[in-house]
Amino acid sequence: MKLVNQDWLIRENGFDRNRIAADGNKFMIGNGYMGCRGTMEEYTRGELAAVTLAGLYDQVDGKWREPVNAPHPLYAVIEFEGQSLSVLDCEPVEHEQALDIRSAVHHRRTVFKADRGAELVVESERFCSAERLNVIAGRLSVTCSADGQLTIRTGIDGEVWDINGPHLEKLEAAERQNSLLVTAVTRELQVPLAVAERISSSMEAEGREAVTMEVRYDQQSGSVFRTISFACRAGKTYTFDRFAAVCTGLDEEEPGAAALRLCREAAGTGYTGLLAEHEACWERKWALADVVIEGDDEAQLALRYSLYQLLIIAPEHSEKLSIPARGLSGQVYKGAVFWDTEMFMLPFFLYTQPETARNLVMYRIHTLDGARRKAAEYGYEGAFYAWESQETGDDACTLFNVNDVFTGRPMRTYFRDKQVHISADAAYGIWEYYKFTGDEGILLQGGAETVWECARFFYSYAYYNPLKQRYEVLDVTGPDEYHERVNNNAFTNAMVKRTLFIALEAMEILHAACPEQYEALVQNSAIKPEHIRDMHDRLYVPEPDSETGLIEQFDRYFTLEDVPLHELKGRVLNKHEYWGGGNGLATTTQILKQADIVLMLHLFKDAYDTVIKKANWAYYEPRTEHGSSLSACIYAMVAADTGSPDWGYPYFMRTATIDLTGESKQYVGDLYIGGTHPAANGGAWMAAVQGFAGIRFDGECATISPSLPEKWQAVQTRLILRGQQIKVRVGRQQVELEADAGNTSEVRVAAYGQSLTLEPGVSAVLRMGQE
Ligand code: BGC
């Protein structure tokens, strides 16, 4: 097996037991339907082997609801002369794991020294087909330096990683139509699930039977393995191609029959054919998504890797799915969707895959009823979106989300009750999509209703302060979760105001296009558009201080203890202790978890001048722990925006490398939170394209204001703006543009104070200093 695409390879040499969990994330593959952790063929539950399914959740014994991991279809372990050649039992002499991010293929090469000196080379590659979403294909090969008896145990392993499982029951393992098959149903909702696998070997092609074939079932765990045993010859390579299909009742009437059929068809196409069609899909994905950074190879690979992570989990195929905070890397964070999607991932999809952006936005529209139920549960009107959202939109977040490391007792946290900005983020996402694409259909198909419901929620949540004659939003938690239940968090208030504006605009559009729908919404509500307008006009949003330019994060934030971050770190008693909550370390101080005011300055960048942005960046950055992976990219962007890209660069690198280094928080209290970080992956794109290249499209004109870090000579990318594609190369002194010949209308672009209109097929250059 050859590793091509050398510039697109993520590789790691040597086997290190301590890296098993981190490498499972780093080397993950996926296709939006499922994610397959970067584990070795011989790994099972203990090494966190998992194939995590998008959108299928289960709950058992009152424990947290979480996504379901399917039985693992590409399990394999090799024995030579009775000796197990698993990296877990036999220290390999060479070991390499690699990921080709250009074609989303996982590779592994391990050399073992067996007892009598024989050297065995085990190689494998696998991919989750981008063309056939239910299919995983793999190729395993073994070469031995001596003759001997080789045994390969392959099949479907039910012993997969589960945090709050087991989630499957009525497990049946069987052999059908030359395939192994495991069927089961989920425990809570009884959704059927099936995994089928079949194998073909190079020996068959040679006309030689794969000698012994024995099939063993373990009905308890839902495993079925076949053992192939034969006399191998020195120096000869034996290859096994593996075809697997995973189906559930969410996508198929009869998952068992469908899995067998898909598996048979995959085997019919063959490994090479499947790989070719998969690679063709990935070529198309990259043609739209790639960002080239000239002059900085390290940043280049990290950014591409971040985009890879987004592309393997993007729900291109369904508008009922969004992207969980840990992608499809396992069950961490309950497989739940947070504000991360709208605020950190949506921009990438808007510019490169608008149809996927639409799916992400539609997910919120489909889960509106869950948000309505949550608002009603708390006694509010409208839609209060789930802080941790699963398939119905009901909140998976518990009132006790963190355990205190000192007492082991659950801590009361207020993520669920008080992070009300989530409804504003959902509304913001819908409006961003609408403005960007001009797709009015989204508003008429539930988008206007959704943002209206979010606005009604805020009207019912807020208070009118008669003395100050203004509306205030009290008792909330902003993005900085270390300070819960605060009043007038500036970010939240600004987002609420934006939501009210969006609702008024969207309702006008609805009024004009579907007056009956509009009337029905208004008539069914005691809160009328004029109430929303009044609140919009008189809502208090904290403003910059006239002398210092600082915006107070929330009422009385500046009265909290102003302790340096390093000093606070010195007070830590347990490295996993939670800094927020009732008596957390940061609670009584000005230390914040993540960008809060600075995020507001980024989102509402036109409302604040550079002096204000700089003053707040300089004040809040030293006080930010960056305890969330959502933080650093925002500081990078605001630094770029204020003309200091080199300040921003380290924050960009920190964001873009988070899943490569594995250096992120792994625990909050005793809660494991490891996994991939799609919000940071999206943040890396935002920082590079919107931040440093300074590209911004408002629905009519793409404005480019470059602010490149010192090392970067240029950023090249392709943009899809209202269905029209342009290639841009943003250099240090000039912006080069090329509109696709296939475009159907012109594209407006502005840079360095000049603007132009690009007809289809036309190229142009805008130069600095020509204004
Ligand atoms: C952050 C939240 C984020 C969540 C999921 C938390 O640590 O503070 O803002 O939504 O992780 O990524």
UniProtKB/TrEMBL annotation:
One example GO MF annotation: glycosyltransferase activity
GO biological process, one term: carbohydrate metabolic process
Coiled-coil ranges from the UniProt annotation: none
Ranges where the Glycoside hydrolase family 65 central catalytic domain occurs: 304-686
One Pfam family hit: Glyco_hydro_65C
Residue span(s) of domain Glycoside hydrolase family 65 N-terminal: 11-248
Keywords: Glycosyltransferase, Hydrolase, Transferase
Domain Glycoside hydrolase family 65 C-terminal: residue ranges: 696-758
Amino-acid positions noted as binding substrate in the UniProt annotation, renumbered to this chain: 339-340, 593-594
Record carries keyword Glycosyltransferase: yes
UniProt cross-references to PANTHER family, sorted A to Z: GLYCOSYL HYDROLASE-RELATED (PTHR11051), PROTEIN-GLUCOSYLGALACTOSYLHYDROXYLYSINE GLUCOSIDASE (PTHR11051:SF8)
Family: Belongs to the glycosyl hydrolase 65 family.
Name this polypeptide is given: Glycosyl hydrolase
Organism encoding this protein: Paenibacillus apis
